[in-house]
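ok trying this again, last paste got cut off
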Amino acid sequence: MEACLADLAAQGAVGKASCLGAQQGALEIAFADADAAQVRTTFDAHFAPADLLVTDHTPQVPQVFVSDMDSTMIGQECIDELADFAGLKTQIAEITERAMQGELDFESALRERVALLAGLGEGAIARCIAERIRPMPGAKTLVATLKAKGCRTVLVTGGFHQFADPVGEMLGFERVIANRLEIVDGKLTGGLVGPICHSGTKLSAHDDEVAALGEGTVSLATGDGANDIPMIAAATYGIAYHAKPKARAAANGAVDFGDLTAVLTLLGVPEGEWVTG
């Protein structure tokens, strides 16, 4: 830590570190004068991978929490796991990865992957949820703790309602926004029903929830891919969770090392106030 602070001081940023609650290794560093990008670059050089949040004020508990689902609130990419039941996981996962990196247009990549699932039996969805889909470590604690403190929680995903609805219920989200797979006669048609949930939808979900609570609303957004960038950038606290480089660069916070309870630590919520179970 001393070397990091010395580097920042040499660049004209004067800071003082203090312990942040009882979390081992968690520090709050206040700077009299510093550029946020400069602070992040210097911290990354000394500590990456690490968890950090850079703000111009002492973090507060948010009133709105909007989160991505796949590889953020759960440890899987649902479409990739579902594709495995059709023997297409490798092919579809490659497209998913490129879309998350921001190399492909999201809607086109989504429709291409869904089309490959045409003919798959509806029962594969239930099997996939039961056998493959698991919460990310710390997800339940994060959502439950924020809700206990009066925060509105919204799950918004470029994935599918058939997965997001049960995941949202399992984790305690109050609202779920997603795409919907078309199913006819018990089989996936390879199409989607209704409007596409994309990066603009995620941003609108964030903005609408903030607007409903009024000026000064403090918001939190978490995500890991390019499709999450607009909502992460718009949130008071945009935290990239074990994210792709473009998403991490757009955020003012990152969890690169810990699980989702690290978000609570970054917000200054003491572990004694966490809601577990």
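PB: full thing came through this time. The mean pLDDT is 91.
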